[in-house]
Amino acid sequence: MAKFVNHFFPADCASPIHVLHETGVMFKNTPQLLGTPRFAYVEIYENTMQPPNGVTIDHFQHHISFGRDAFLDSSNAAAFPNDLVKLTIVKRPNFSAGKIIIGDNVCLQGTAIVSYESVTIGDNALFGPNVVIMDCDGHTLSGRNNADEVSRLVTKPVSIGNNVWIGYGAIITKGVSIGDNAVIGAGSVVHKDVPSNTVYAGNPAKFVKNVE
C-alpha cells in the first residue's frame, strides 16, 4: 500500500496558529498550545496505481475542527511521559478525506487521532497523555501489501461523548461509541461501545462500575 503525504504541519513552525488557519484547521477561538502539535494530511492509493493527480490541500480544508477553548499539550512538561498531539486525516481513492470534529473545552495531551472517515469528540473531554484514537486499523488482516489492500480497508466512525475522561495510554479502536460522562482507565484497549455514566478499564476494556 503506497502513501503520499500531501501536507505536513511542521513541529518547529514559528507561527503555528497562522499555519493552522492556512491549512483549514478551524478553531472557534484561539487555542492554548504547549509545544507545537503536528497535523498531517495523507493520501493513500493502491500499489498498482500511479500517484493520483489533482489532490491538494483544498481537499482537506475544514476536515479538522475544534470548538472553543481547546488545550493542546505537546510538551514534556507533564508529570508522565507525553508526546506531540498528532492529528492525521487520510484520503482514499473515491472517498472523501476523513474528518476530526472536536467540541468545546477539550484537553488533548500527546493525543494521536487518525481519521479515514470520522472521529467526533464532545465538549469537556479530557485525555490523559498518549491516548490513541483511530477509525481504521490502517491495514488488512490478510493479504498485506496486496494490490487491492486499500479497497479492502474497513472504516467505522468513532464517537466520544461529552464530559468523557480517558486515562493515560488508552487506545480507542474503530467503530467505538463512548457515552457521556464515561471514564476509561489508563492503558485500556476499547473495542466495544461504552455506555454513558460508566467506568471501563482493562485490555480488552470491561465494565468496572457506574459513575457515582
Task: List strands and helices in order, with pairings.
Blueprint: E1 2-9, H1 16-22, E2 26-27, E3 32-34, E4 38-45, E5 64-66, E6 71-73, E7 86-91, E8 99-102, E9 107-109, E10 112-115, E11 118-121, E12 126-127, E13 132-134, E14 158-160, E15 165-166, E16 171-172, E17 177-178, E18 183-184, E19 189-190, E20 198-201, E21 206-210
Parallel strand pairs: 2-5, 3-6, 4-7, 5-8, 6-9, 7-10, 8-11, 10-13, 11-14, 12-15, 13-16, 14-17, 15-18, 16-19, 18-20
Antiparallel strand pairs: 1-4, 20-21
Instruction: From the 3D structure, determine the CATH topology.
Output: UDP N-Acetylglucosamine Acyltransferase, domain 1
* Percent of residues in β-strands: 35-45%
Q: Which CATH class?
A: Mainly Beta
* Strand order in the largest sheet: 1-4-7-10-13-16-19
Task: Tell me, briefly, the overall form.
Answer: globular
What is the number of independent domains?
Answer: 1
Number of helices: 1
Query: What is the terminal separation in angstroms?
Result: 47 Å
CATH architecture: 3 Solenoid
* SSE order, one letter for each helix or strand: EHEEEEEEEEEEEEEEEEEEEE
Low-confidence stretches: 1-5
Number of beta-strand segments: 21
SS content category: mainly beta
Give the tags.
UDP N-Acetylglucosamine Acyltransferase, domain 1; 6-stranded parallel beta sheet; 212 residues
Q: Quick gist of this model?
A:
The protein is mainly β and about 210 residues long. The protein has one helix at about 15-20, and strands at about 1-10, 25, 30-35, 40-45, 65, 70-75, 85-90, 100, 105-110, 110-115, 120, 125, 130-135, 160, 165, 170, 175-180, 185, 190, 200, 205-210.
